[in-house]
Structure formats: structure tokens, C-alpha cells
Amino acid sequence: MGVTKEKDFWIATAILIVTVSVMAAIILHWIRFGFFVGPFRLNHWFVLIGIIYIALIVPTIAFLKKRFPKRYATLCRVHIFGNLLAFMLISFHFASQISRPANSYPELGTGVVLYIAMVFLVGTGFIQRFQMVARIKPQSWRFVHMLAAVALLLTIIVHILRGLSII
């Protein structure tokens, strides 16, 4: 069975299509997530949930993959789909930010770099998992994917420090 015939491939592709479609609807102002839910706007809750998920679950899964190798396939699926859903939430936040009116437009700076790093991370993970470029060895994609993860982590740190006016 080819990779594109796998159920996981089509579920992952559907998540990405939904993400891009909803982002377009947000940018076109057909959907708005700028209303308050408690102390934060809904789009800020999205990014908080996405980042907390990534910060807590990804290292946990990496640890568990080594500790329980028999559960590798299940943990890998949790990693893939959980991260795609976190990416979706973060994408909704990003689209909400870039679609704000000119009088309240945010300083994008590290946010744009952060989102680009995340897109690169998702792209390399997708290519690695579904072997989209067969000529390149999976170990090479894994290395690039890990570099993208480090770039994302460093950018998150800078983004938070800038947001807190520390740097």
C-alpha cells in the first residue's frame, strides 16, 4: 500500500486543509475569534492551548517512545495528530493577528519568524512521516525536522522575552 493510501495521510491532509481554509476565512473576516472568553480573547486561548500542548506533550512523547518502544506507533500518531491540531490552533491565532485593522495592528517581528519556523517544522514532519521525497533518506529529514524544532524553541524563547519587554 502506498503512503498516500494510508488513512493517517488523509487525516493529516484534511487537518491541514481545514487549517488553511479557516485561516482564509479569518483573514477575509468571515470568522472572528477576537471576542473575550474570561481574561483573554479566544484567539489567545487558542495559542496558549497549542503552545502548552507542544511544550508539555512533545517532550513527554519523546521520553515515552524510548521508555516504551512497543508503544512507538501509538505515540507517533499522538505526536503527529496532536501537533497538527496544536498547529491549527496556533494558525488561527496567527491569522487573527494579521487580519487586525491597521489602527490596532500588532508588531509581528518574532511572531512571523515563529510561525514560519512552525510551518517548516510541520512541513518537514509531514514529509518525513509520509515519505513524500523518497530520494532523501528518512534520517536526513529527521535531522532537518529536529533542527526546525530547535529553531522553533529558540524563537519561542525570544518571542516570550520580547513580549515581557525583557529584551
Topology readout:
Elements lengths: L6 H21 L8 E2 L2 E2 H26 L4 H27 L10 H21 L8 H26 L4
Antiparallel strand pairs: 1-2
Helix pairs in contact: 1-3, 2-3, 3-4, 4-5
Shape: globular
Given helix and strand content, the structural type is: mainly alpha
Query: Count the strands?
Result: 2
Radius of gyration: 17 Å
| Average residue pLDDT | 89
What proportion of the residues is helical, as a percent range?
A: over 70%
Span of the ends, CA to CA = 51 Å
Beta-strand percent range? under 5%
How are helices and strands ordered from N to C? HEEHHHH
Domains, number = 2
Largest sheet: 2 strands, antiparallel
Low-pLDDT runs of 5+ residues are none
Tally of individual helices: 5
Please state how the strands of the largest beta sheet are arranged side by side: 1-2
Question: What do these coordinates show?
Answer:
- The chain has 2 domains: 1-103, no CATH class; 107-167.
- Helices cover 72% and strands 2% of the residues.
- The protein has helices at 7-27, 42-67, 72-98, 109-129, 138-163, and strands at residues 36-37, 40-41.
- It has a two-stranded antiparallel ribbon with strand order 1-2.
- Helix 1 (7-27) runs parallel beside helix 3, helix 2 runs antiparallel to helix 3 (72-98) and helix 3 (72-98) runs antiparallel to helix 4.
- The termini are far apart.
- The mean pLDDT is 89.
